[in-house]
Amino acid sequence: MAMRWKNTLKDCDVTDETLFLNRRQIIGGAAAGLGLGAIGGVAHAAPEDLEPNAYEDITRYNNYYEFGTGKDDPVNNAGALTTNPWSVKIVGLVDRPGDYAFEDIMKAMTIEERLYRLRCVEAWSMVVPWNGFELADLLAMAGVQSSAKYVAFETAYRPDEMPGVRYPVLDWPYVEGLRLDEAMNPLTIMATGIYGKDIPNQNGAPLRLVVPWKYGFKSIKSIVRITLTDTQPPTSWNKSNAREYGFYANVNPQVDHPRWSQASERLIGGGLFSKRHPTLMLNGYEEEVGDLYAGMDLTKNF
After folding, report:
1. 93-129, pLDDT tens digit by residue?
2. What is the rounded CA–CA span in Å between residue 33 and residue 59?
3. Which of 116, 173, 233, 266 could disulfide-pair with 157, CB 3.0 to 4.6 Å?
4. Are strands 175-179 and 189-194 parallel, antiparallel or unpaired?
5. Burial 257-271 (b: 16+ CB within 10 A, else e)
6. Integer Cα distance of 270 and 186 in angstroms
7. Structure confidence at residue 18 as a pLDDT band (50, 70, 90)
């Protein structure tokens, strides 16, 4: 069994959105092996009690450039995305390559709730109650070969449904990647819902990656292809501007973006001029994932 972790965020045993928003105090202790209806929350002690953002915050303030670069463009334009039927092609260094239908994936997975911090490289943040399953379990379906070292991801590319791809903001389709040990970490999930509801199109329906210790752009949306490889894969923002966006994209308050500080963040939901808060190393998950980067120069591997 994969390593589990302690829960230090908030609200450890409910699914319903209205109960989340009651701002109940956290119940301490381990969240081992919990299924649907239980929060598999994360991280060591935070400097304050964290509360999940409102559903409206999460689903209306969003980056999904395939539908436009404005924060409200995704919610306004993503309704055109067809998500049924959906399949994910898993290829490369796997024993069972092929097209995996979304409904078959869901039948095979244990869905959990995970209350995670989300930190954007733009220096804003929120707390999201995701529903989903560990990426490691999906990769196990395909059978990871011993020579695999990286996992590459690709977003759907549909010009007829995605108005944003008509503009060369990025090199479409959107691609991302993780080192295999990052992908297999139990904190790394494939999200299928928010607040117990199916994940909305603007947030990456029907299946998106969530890696809570990395900047949000690493959490690729609407995934259609996963490739296991022995070489580091290209990633969209790194291809666009390697000086500003490294492959790792770990939340690190000690390494600034070339054009702004990463030492603090603005919490969404508190208004445009809300008080800024110090950014936590690895977004508050250093105890769980810090060993993945032991001995690495994080100013070069950013």
Report:
1. 999 999 999 999 999 999 999 999 999 999 999 999 9
2. 28
3. 173
4. unpaired
5. eeeeebeebbbbbee
6. 31
7. low
